[in-house]
Specification:
single chain, mainly alpha, two-stranded antiparallel ribbon, 1 helix
Length: about 100
Amino acid sequence: MFKIYKKVVVFNTSDPNKRLEANAHGITPETGTFRLSNLLTIPALIIGGLVSIVFFSAFFALLLIPVGILSYKFWRLFKKAQQTEATESLEAEYTVIKDDTDKH
């Protein structure tokens, strides 16, 4: 069986009767606000964590999508430049003015 003890915080003061108790501000298990706040703490933490994950992911998606698009465009330009460099040839038209070769 569990035993529940009343928690009391005592500060080192001159008067030993001065104590801070949990029900000093009207927050007691009997009023319901104490129990309600304890019940809402864990779901609030879980919801806060999920919302922060969504916003964090959306922020990085907004940053990374344009970077991905630009890097893909630069990669295509780089590949196109490599292909044209490999197949590049010089074409020219010329006219022979004088031919000094021996025709025998």
